[in-house]
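ugh ok so i messed up the first submission bc i forgot one of the chains. this is the corrected input, ALL of the components this time, i swear. 545 residues overall. if the numbers dont match what u have on ur side tell me asap before i send this to the collaborators (the ones from the other lab, u know who)
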Amino acid sequence: MVGDLGIAEDAVQEACLAAVAQWPAAGWPANPRGWLVGVARHKALDLVRREARRGAKEEAAMRELGWPGHPGQDPGWPGPGIAGPAAPGPVGQAAGGTGDELELILMCCHPAIAPAAQVALTLRCVCGLSTAEIAAAFLVPEATMAKRLARAKSKIRDAGIRLRMPARENMADRVGAVLRVVYLVFTEGHKASAGPALVRGELCDAAIRLARGLAVLLPGEPEVTGLLALLLLTDARRPARTDSRGGLVLLADQDRSRWDTAMIDEGETLLLTALRAGQPGPYQLHAAIAACHSTSRDAADTNWREIAALYGELIRYEPTPVIEANRAIAVAMSEGPAAGLVILDAVGHHPQLGRWPQLHLARADLLSRLGRAEDAAGAYRAALELEPTAAERDFIIRRVGELTPDAAADGSVGWPDDQQPGRRT
Amino acid sequence: MKYLFLLNTATGGMPESLSSAEYAEMSAAYESAVTAMAKAGVLIECAPLRPASSATTVRVRDAETILTDGPAAEIKEQVGGYTLVECADLDEALKWAATIPAAQAGSVEVRSVVATQPPA
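and heres the new structure output, hopefully the right one now
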């Protein structure tokens, strides 16, 4: 790994050249202009560096952070780097993106900063999202988000967190933290934990831009490549995941002709590249699972035995009841609902997992397959009590209606309308 | 940049009841941590404190000085010592803070120090 600043800078330069060389083969990026601006900035930055090595970069970072001596500057970073959309204006000026992008991402994801603030700071400083956009994404008032960002920036300034490559021995941990932030941004977009929309496409796009940027900055890191593959393979299903009214469509019911085949192909190619390095890790395993789904012609064609085995591997890295619950579902699909229900009920007693609506949704599904309609409806109701998103709520109410037609006749699933759980404030 | 490490321990300060062997072991652990810092050229000064039970807290309200017998807040851990270092950035300071024995049994709070000129 790169721990030395000079080596890191050279690596970034080479990575940019490599990215340009790979374009025709790997397909054009979604935002070629953004990439071009990013690459050009690197070249410009290189020239700046020849004149004044580290000084210029630190000075720019300090100005961008609104340090004293730079009155009138927006305390936020002014511009996105390679991971952000194309910024207007001539390149090469110290107007933005002058800090080395990897160091910038590592700084935003510094473990001394609270995780929620790491995500917000990365979206603001690396992706170039406005404070209002980030506030909307996390459903908090703009003033609250502005305060959170300001606090994180003060922490960087006051505690002396510097823009630099971490020591060699810390590099793996620090990159791990960055990957987690990117994954968090994506999962929040892929399945928003709050709010009326099931999918927040802008967050998925931001996460994929970030992952692409990281893959360029850290070439040959299998977990980085694995993460990008995972995001592409998962996001490829986005067009089919909601119906025309924004309702949730289950994987098995999705119209697979609406999946983005170019994204799936790119994800598969990246995954194979990552796996060839022979250093498996959780993101590669998650990507392999996503590939099992995304490359199946239809739901019946899915290799659930393979997926169950992959979840079994994943437990070695993430020994959590959530992974075990996912394995239970895969086992149910390959060996029958009864076998899956045994595993699911074994992990269902975990206090944290009981708060996870997906557990109850999965139980409900297995129970209804076993013909236990009443038990299934009960499990759906348990999921409703855990405040699922509006789209999930509509799906659950529909399913309960199908399972217990009498109760659904008056549009009720067991609660007075004004006390229905799952309603977001 | 100067960083102050506040060493939080259960009693705050030197443990009150230690066998001589335990005391020697603890002293050796601290000695080895601060020697490494001194060798690296980051150490400015360091010292343990007398137990928090011996603290006197001073508050001035409406020009009246109010004294309280004991630390400012009764919490699970109290400041039991301090280390002042000069480091390039937070990452370096955190690396050294983790080497202090108090980080294992209690905690070490890392605070950056505002650069000021002491009165001449």
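quick check: The beta strands of chain B are 2-9, 43-48, 56-61, 64-69, 78-86, 107-112. that seems consistent at least. The two ends of chain B are 21 Å apart (CA to CA).
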